[in-house]
What we know:
By secondary structure, the protein is an alpha/beta fold. Helices cover 42% and strands 15% of the residues. It is globular. Keywords: Oxidoreductase.
Amino acid sequence: MQLADKVALVTGGGQGIGRGIVERYLEEGANVVVAQRSRLDAELEERPDVAHVPVDLSDSAALADVVDRAAEVFGALDILVNNAGLMAEHHISELPLKDWQRMEAVNVTAPLFLSQAVVAHLRKRGGGSIINIGSVEGMLTNPAHAAYAASKAAVHGMTRAMAIDLGPVGIRCNAIAPGWITSDLSEKYLDSKENPVEARSALRDLHPVGRLGQPTDVGDLAVYLGGDHSGFLSGEVIVLDGGRTIRLPTPD
Length: 252
């Protein structure tokens, strides 16, 4: 029970990577507050160690209030996981300003100002951990992802700067940069291919570990970063991609 007696605030924790983090945090004994627009499903909603605080993370004026409300639920906060994010695909020549602004608001502004708001609560506990969910696309990227890649690169840089500012008060800041993580959206994408079985096989072959990532893989790392065993780790961006980005392509 690595997170016993700890309270975590996880944005976008109802599905995908966020859900994997929430599930692992609960298994390790934490109480979890999920901040997101949509309601939780029945499985989470019925648990006494889970609470939901509704929020539109693109509304910067709501960020400080949502942290205070989250801290009230279980009486404290020890961990903030900035997980929620958006991705809209546009070629750079066709990127609308409104999509850029909304993506940056949710992916960059919200993590920054949620982190600012949580500092006072973490200091009451003698310190704590802030975990930002970045992406391998903050380092390498795909076509039509200029806005998304920019936002995740910003998250990585912000994480390092936050670690410097907050280290003296006992708050560690790290980022997880996931690669391909299985989700409803990724499965829909693979199912859209002419031969889904072949597409999944080819994708698996890109990963030296021989499989695709799961949300709980990110959750496992988030448990370590949120717990006391990572007390000397701060300011790092940890790539979690099954080795995919270290593998050079080979000629046919």
